[in-house]
Amino acid sequence: MDSPYLLETLAEDFWNLAGYGPEGSVDIEAAAGWALPVEIAFQARLHLHHVAARMPHLGVDATLMGRDRRLRGCLIAYHGKGLILIDAADPPDEQRFTLAHELAHFLLDYQRPRQRALAALGEAILPVLDGARSPTVEERLHAVLTHVPLGVLHHLMERPDEGLPAGTVLEVEDRADRLALELLAPARLLLERMVAPSAPLAFRERLAFLTHALVTEKNLPPAKAAAYARYLLRQQGGPGFRDWLLGTW
């Protein structure tokens, strides 16, 4: 599991590249255009066949497995860049979170390991990373290639409507969710707010207060806002014995 410090650093680097900070309800789409080599497209009622139809036009030779089904979003990463497809029929708050989630996969699962491989092996490894040639025995033996996607990376964001973190099912989804939330609503700023004198004391009230702020100020979907608020408050040690004793947890 990646450390909170790494996720905070990746989010801060993203906003530095975008040229502004994540204050208020951030325009994650505009920021992505400045910070990363990604294209973002919207498709009403996005299905797997829409993704498959895009791939030949990108010069991508890859097969998507499984039945045709509706998706919240999709990332196709190739040749150092990416295409993110978002279901335009989803509510705006869900679209924003989907975009942040797919950006997190691009940063964590594609760009970061690719940069690590380039730093260790040099530009000569680029044809391997892009799928233009197979790695040599020596390259295969190099530990840095163990977790580097070779060729095309694709991620499909399925449609189960549940809260976060999804890492109770898959660790890779959990860390993408956490980085997505860090991009949209940095934990440090939220936790600082919760230690202010004006913040409510009882855990239940703190949970309601923070959830409301995440929905109204950060435009997070309500279920994800509630789960993120609970996660953050637990990082502060709540609920405590007093909450349990008074039934305010």
Largest sheet: 4 strands, mixed
SSE order: HHEHEEHHHEHHHHH
Average pLDDT confidence is 86
Structural class: alpha+beta
- Tell me the overall shape: globular
Q: Estimate the strand proportion.
A: 5-15%
Adjacency order of strands in the biggest sheet: 1-3-2-4
Poorly predicted ranges: 165-169, 241-247
What is the number of independent domains? Answer: 2
Output the radius of gyration.
20 Å
Distance N to C terminus: 28 Å
Helix content: 40-55%
What does this structure look like?
With 249 residues, this protein is of the alpha+beta class. It has two domains: 4-164 and 179-184, no CATH class; 185-249, no CATH class. It has eleven helices and four strands, in the order ααβαββαααβααααα. The protein has helices spanning 4-18, 28-35, 48-54, 92-121, 126-129, 137-141, 171-184, 187-194, 203-216, 222-235, 241-246; strands at residues 38-43, 73-78, 81-87, 153-157. It has a four-stranded mixed β-sheet, covered by helices on one side. A hairpin with a 2-residue loop joins strand 2 and strand 3 (81-87). Helix 1 crosses helix 2. The two termini are 28 Å apart. The model is unreliable at 165-169 and 241-247 (pLDDT under 50).
